[in-house]
Amino acid sequence: MSKKGLCLWLLLLSLAAAPLACDQARSKFDQISLGLTRQQVEKLLGKPATVTGDPATPTATWTYGKEKLVIQFNQDRVQLKQLAPAERGKGH
Description:
The protein contains 2 helices and 4 strands, in the order ααββββ.
């Protein structure tokens, strides 16, 4: 296969995988309910990409393709969850 053909194949493959990442983010988001412990969330999602804020009420972020899951904890339990567009250039 030529280099040009290989590049085209890789481009098509990445375009086909993009909706899967969005579906994965939505599926993960739907599994999280208010009141889950941080340990339960990390068991479902793995370690977050980032954790910011006060240690008593940290905000954790997981990124899946073009979407990110943002979860705020209060006393180690889910207080708020949000599914939002990821910043450009970021990925899981």
